[in-house]
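Assess this one:

_____
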Amino acid sequence: MSSNSYGTLFRVTTWGESHGPAIGCVVDGTPPLLPLSEPDIQRWLDRRKPGTSRFTTQRKESDTVRILSGVLDGKTTGTPISLMIENEDARSRDYDEIKDKFRPGHADYAYWKKYGIRDHRGGGRSSARETASRVAAGAVARLILGDSVSIRGAVIQLGPHKIDRSRWDWTAVEDNPFWCPDRQAAQAWEGYLDGVRKAGSSCGAVIEVVAAGVPAGLGAPIYGKLDADIAGALMSINAVKGVEIGAGFGAASLSGEENADEMRMRDGEVAFLSNQAGGILGGISTGQEIVARFAVKPTSSILSARKTITKDGRDTEISTKGRHDPCVGIRATPVGEAMLACVLADHLLRHRAQCG
C-alpha cells in the first residue's frame, strides 16, 4: 500500500492497523532544538481518545504515546521523530461473523477489489483508529507554529441539527461532549444522539476548524495553494465527504459586493471588513483567521440489517456488532485541528525556505 505519507518539508508517515499491536507515525522535517516531551503530545491525544463519554465508542484505549526517536534531553534533534501508541483493547472476535461480508458504506469492498485482501478486524488500515497518529503528528506541528498561532475546532451541526451562530462561545466547546460552541444546542443534542445510539443507528456532523494568528504569505498561487492543501488534508480524514473554505458553497449565492472582503488601514495595519475568503486569497494566507469546515458522513457500522454481498458473490444481509461511535464526527474534531496544524506547519517551513 502506497500513499501513507503527507507533506513536503514537514512530512508525516503513519503506520499500523486498528487491531494490530500498535499504531504510530514518523514525523520528518521538524527543526532542531524545539522543546518536546511525551506530555506535550499526550494532552492532544487525550482529547481524541475513545470512551470519554457515552456518545463515543466504549473501546478502552489510553492512547499513551511513546517517543522512540528524534528527541534528546527534551529537545528535538532535527532527525525523524518516531511516535508509537499501543493498541490495548482490540476485540478481533467481534468481527469474526462478518469476515466474509462487505459492510455497506465501509471501505471493505473497495480495499478488497484493489488489493485482493482486506483486514476485517475493525477495518485494519482504513479504521479511524489511524487518526490517533495524525493527532500525535499535529502536536509536533503546533510546536513548529508556536504559541502565536491557535487552532480550534467545533462541531456546528449534528445530524440535521445546527447551532445558532449568534450564541457561539469558544469556552463552551470544552464543557460538553460534542465540542459544541452553543450550550443550548449541546443540551438538545444529548437527547437526539441518545435516541440514535439506543436505536443502533448513527448520524453525521459538520465540523469547523479555525486557525488564528497565521501570518500572511503562506501558500503558493498555482499548484501549492494553501486552501487546496487544507482541503486535501481534511478530505483525507476517515468518513469526510465534503470540505469548504470560508463562505464555501455559500459564496455561490452571494453578490460580488457581498463576497468582496473590503479593506481599510487601521493603526498602520491592513484591516479586512469581512472574511468570506476564509483567510486565503489566490491560495495565499492573508493574515486573517483561516476558516474551514468539513462534513462527516454517518458511521457505517450500525445494528440494523443492511443488504450486502459476500466475497464469493452471494446476496446476504449484515448487522455490525461491537463498539462503534454513533457519530464519528465528534472525535473527528481534534483530528481536523491536527490536520490543519500539519498543513500550516508544512507551509510555514516552505515559506521560510523560499522567502526567508
Notes: The CA atoms of residues 246 and 349 lie 24 Å apart. The longest helix spans residues 328-355. The first strand starts at residue 5 and ends at 6. The radius of gyration is 21 Å.
